[in-house]
Amino acid sequence: MFVYFDVQHIYYLPQYIPVIEKLSNRGHQCALVFYRSQEKQFIDICETFAVEHSIKAIWLEDKSNTLDFYQGVECDWVVFGNAFLDVDKLNNKSVLMQHGIGPKSCYYDVSNTTTTVRFVEGEHRLKRLKNLYPNGNFVDSGYAKLDPIINNSVEKVDLARLGLDKNKPTLLYAPTFYPSSIECMSDDFPECFPDYNIIIKPHFFSLSKPRYKKQKSKIMRWQKYNNVYLTNESEFNLTPFLAVADIMLSDASSAIFEFAALDKPVVWCDFYKLRWNYRGIFSYRFKARLDEDINYFHKICQRAEQFSDVVSAVQLCASESEEFRFNRKKIIEQLAGKIDGNCADRIVNYLESYE
After folding, report:
1. How many whole angstroms separate alpha carbon 337 and alpha carbon 107?
2. Are 182 and 122 in the same domain?
3. Using one digit for the tens of pLDDT, what is the confidence trace for 164-177?
4. Rounded to whole angstroms, how far apart are CA atoms 121 and 265?
């Protein structure tokens, strides 16, 4: 079996990696399809990744070449991490394996285009997708990205090597790029947590795209503190940092569901720097960008409505009740599916057996 994995953005890779490893272990061939129209950092990092993991890499100039390329190759499956508008024109079987399980409405909207199969996470999402798209083929596999953590095969993070204190608890701040809490955080944010290590893991866009230069400027201020480690662009995989952190801070990000799925406490930074065309009379755009699933954040996180609430929210994380943890586990089962380390196996089993 030959499987192509389409990598429009580098942050698709953490979801693909466990599946690629399972396919390769079973003797199947895999290839990654990258795009040279991306930022130079993207190209360099992806070239290095492919070499280090001994995976065949194919480079297209831009997305306008995608359809012609896939129509011209022989393979068993093409895996996408987001919607591909021409998927119905492909000669190959296709997979949608959405790159995140966050609260943005695009999680559901991308199934407007019908792939041969879409792997989804949990009963709640499966039911909603079936109701929205009754002709779609949806399979609840769980979220493969978390498999390496559950199986204890994830890359180990050495806090001392990062310049942090292994005797301190670790906060992980993992915001998305939009809508983001970064610009609403204090310039001296690390001073508020002198007894913690702080790992800052921004979205790749916050570090690489010029339009988010204000986010990058603030992030670089925090890097100067002794208790802070700022990940770089090549550390695009969040999972090693999910594994080592004790408490996570995030905003409208898939990372919240991912960390909560590990039965760890989360602070939801429910404050955002919005563009002018998402505020006031245009606030409907902001509401449309987020799906109703964000309401589950209230039930699985400690909520901070502004930066001044963050310290007390972190303190509350240290004293979560058993009832809260039980409820969080039940909700996560609905939204992320089985957290058993076997999600990639279920995906590969389906691909192998499909007729």
Report:
1. 15
2. no
3. 999 999 999 999 88
4. 21
